[in-house]
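Data deposition worksheet. Section B asks for the primary sequence of the deposited chain exactly as it was used as input, without tags or linkers unless they were present during the calculation. Section C holds the resulting structure in token form. Section D is free text for depositor observations; keep each observation to a single sentence. Incomplete worksheets are returned to the depositor.
Section A, Depositor: J.P.
Section B:
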Amino acid sequence: MINVFLLIMGPAAAWDKIARARRGFVYITVVELLPLIFAGTALEAWGLHRHGKWQPAHQMFERFSPADILRFEVLQVITLLAMIWVSALLVHKISQTFHDRPLFLKAYTTIAYAYCPMLLAHFLDYGGSVNPAAGWLLGIGCAVWVLYQGIPRILQPDPTHAFGVYLTTNVVVIMTSGLFRLFTAMYLLGYMDLQHSWLSRRLTHLFGP
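Section C:
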């Protein structure tokens, strides 16, 4: 988990360390991603329970029930993991169009660590008056910053293709994370009714009313 701070403060050295470590899927997911995801969602859940969220649509702080918070956070954890895997798969496929053949593990490593600053910025969502876009914008800025050093060290594209891979990877990260943030923000800001969605009803059967 400490790697996220090293990536932000000294991305070149941090990526070199990550490249030498050659971690696998389980380590990256369990040790690097899940602590940030669980910490961020737990902090957000505490904030929603304690002071709610300011909803411009209703001009008020909306308080969420424990059941609604649980459903939302469980769905968010699942979606975050899916977002990272889909992003890694897209980057893996896109890299192949540049005549490079990186292993999927390399694409997953690059994307997973690039998303870590964004997961850290998710801690800002504890604040009831903080717009969800604020943490996303901060996280995207950090992701673009760390990817510049990470792609040549992990994906190792041909030098003539490196900048193209960097640009397309940024597009993938911005689009996938932006779509995720759009839906979660619409719910938190009062523009979407998650309570009556099909997936929410399925989660209710699992976790109770």
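Section D:
The chain has one domain: 3-207.
The first strand starts at residue 53 and ends at 55.
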